[in-house]
Amino acid sequence: MAAFTVAVFVWCVSCCEVCNAREVTNRRSRAATAAADDSTTESSLWLWRGRWRIPHFPLPTFPSTAHGLTCPPPRWPYLSRPRPVGPRHDPHRQGPRHGAPKQIPPPTPTVDPTLRPPPPVSVPPVAEPTPPIGAKGDGNTDDTKAFQDAWTASCNVEASTMVVPANHVFLVGPISFVGEHCQENIILQLDGTVVAPTDPQAWGGEHWLHFDKLSRFTLQGSGTVDGRGSVWWRRSQSEDLNVDLLDVDNDADDGMDSEDADTQAKEEMSSMPRNKPTAMGFDHCLNVTFSGIKIQNSPNFHLTFDHCVGVLVRNMSISSPGDSPDADEIHLGNSQDVTIHDATLACGDDCISIVSGCSNINIHDVHCGPGHGISIGSLGKDHSRACVHNITVRDVDLQGTTNGVRIKSWQSSAVAVRDVAYEHVSGTYTKRPVDLACSDSMPCEEITLSAIDLRPSSQKPPSHDDGPFCWQTFGRLTTPIAPPIDCVQIGRRSSNRIKSGQDSC
Q1: Taking the CB of residue 385, how many other CB atoms lie within 10 A of it?
Q2: Biased-composition ranges for Pro residues (predicted)?
Q3: To which H or E segment does residue 153 belong?
Q4: Which of 114, 216, 254, 403 is such that its CA lies 20 to 30 A from the CA of 121?
Q5: Shortest CA distance to 233 belongs to which of 356, 321, 114?
Q6: Which residues, at least 6 apart from 21, have a Cβ–Cβ distance to it below 8 Å?
């Protein structure tokens, strides 16, 4: 058995030697032939792999038999001979190209003649908002009922929007937008112009546009609310001065002589009600936003918030002539958490007035003038109790106002004013830069004046009596202050006396 195994082993070794000898002979023969045929051709014993050339050993002719056995194909590097690689075929070698590459035309798509192209998609034009149903929007027809019907329809749908479109003038009489039974998040988009009636028969209340008991309500847009209050102002001036102050020149422009204008104005003043209406008033509202609207020429106050919580007024403007009487622009009473910013205010009275029951009021980035400035009060009239606290007025520009910052209190009244800050207030004044008149019985406390820069207006030369005035005012000053204010008592008031229940808000 052992002799047989040795014989088989010797036989296998001899077969392999025969195969290897034949391969070496064939390889040498092919190399000599290739070198003789073309000396420029790369040797077939080298193979380009990327940028590197490695030895290449082509396969012999297989199968090869020796002594009746088939030799197995050798392993690498006995690989199949690749296509010769020269300078023209090396993609990594930089050199001149021989002619432009052949352009292969794209395949021609086949179109089924039975198919039809899809019809063009027509986009309908965006329609402009239309006036509320029944409204004319011509400035002469009474659209009050149409507005009331549109509000009733919007009131019943949560997050609905009532649109007052642009390019229309709507004549609207006294109207109430009551939200007691309405859904929340209603938007009134006012882009058109709303004007008040001048017919005396149309009036009878204290408000023109009244918003009551609304929750999460937004009034926004780019429209105008015009109170047309000139007739009311003439009557008020006539009653105050006991003379008829008539704008004869303006009436003469309409083609009337002075006698006819005087007669017509007297008739208008005698027929108008004594109670001048407020242009826009919000009562008992929660989380209200007022944005973008312009209010002008209100007979009385322009915009009021009474018993409201969570009010935001921004990016709006109010204007009326500088001699319009009792025409406060924004009036706050018994309201909390109110923010007013980016507003332009010009009128004949206070730009912003803050009266009893207000707290957490933040006013900033406001331009005021003409007018009486930004005022707290008046407070404590007829010996009434009043409380105002946590008021901040900052980054305010006053131009030609009678006063800069002001607190108005009736003497011998129970008035508590504390924690009030005026910061970065600048501009010009015609009477006093600072007028802080607090109550004898309850002085103002924690009043802070910081970075005040108020200069006298060129319209009136300053005098000694036009300087800062303070009465029973305790607080602190931080520089710079112009003009110098020496009437504020630094620190807190003496606590020797027994405090009453009226001393705190």
Answers
A1: 14
A2: 103-132
A3: helix 144-155
A4: 114
A5: 321
A6: none
C-alpha to C-alpha distance for 438 and 440, rounded to whole angstroms: 7
- pLDDT at position 322 is 82
Q: Mean pLDDT over residues 150-166, rounded? A: 93
How far apart, in whole angstroms, are the C-alpha atoms of residue 160 and residue 156?
Answer: 8
Strand partners, 295: 225, 318
How many Cβ atoms from other residues are within 10 Å of residue 118's Cβ? 6
Residues with Cβ within 8 Å of residue 181, at least 6 apart in sequence: 155
- For residue 201, what pLDDT band results from cuts at 50, 70 and 90? confident
Residue 274 burial class via C-beta count within 10 angstroms: exposed 0-12, middle 13-18, buried 19 and up: exposed
- Its CATH class, for the domain covering 138-490, is mainly beta
d(Cα 305, Cα 281) in Å, to the nearest integer? Answer: 6
The yes-or-no verdict on residue 38 having pLDDT over 60 is no
| DSSP per residue, 183-212 | PSS-EEEE-SEEE----GGG--SSEEEEEE
Q: Is the pLDDT of residue 104 over 60?
A: yes
**From CA 403, how far away is CA 427, in angstroms rounded?**
10
pLDDT band at 232 (very low <50, low <70, confident <90, very high): confident
Give the contacts of 8 (CB within 8 A, at least 6 positions apart). Answer: none
Q: Supply the DSSP string of 458-485, one letter for each residue.
A: TTS---GGGS-EEESEEEEEEEEEES--
Q: What is the pTM of this model?
A: 0.69
User: Across residues 97-104, what is the average pLDDT?
Assistant: 59
Closest CA to 418 of 441, 439, 387: 387
Question: What DSSP assignment string belongs to 43-105?
Answer: PTTEEEETTEEEE------S--EETTEEPPPP-TT-PPP-----TTT-TTS----SSPPPP-P
Q: What is the C-alpha to C-alpha distance for residues 475 and 445, in angstroms, rounded to an integer?
A: 6
Mean pLDDT across the chain, nearest whole number? 78
DSSP code for 128:
P
- Which pLDDT belongs to residue 307? 97
Average pLDDT over residues 381-410: 92
The residue ranges of every structural domain in the chain are 2-70, 138-490
Residue 168 or 479, more confident: 168
Are 491 and 474 in contact by the 8 Å Cβ rule? The answer is yes
pLDDT of residue 167: 93
Give the SS3 label for residue 239: helix
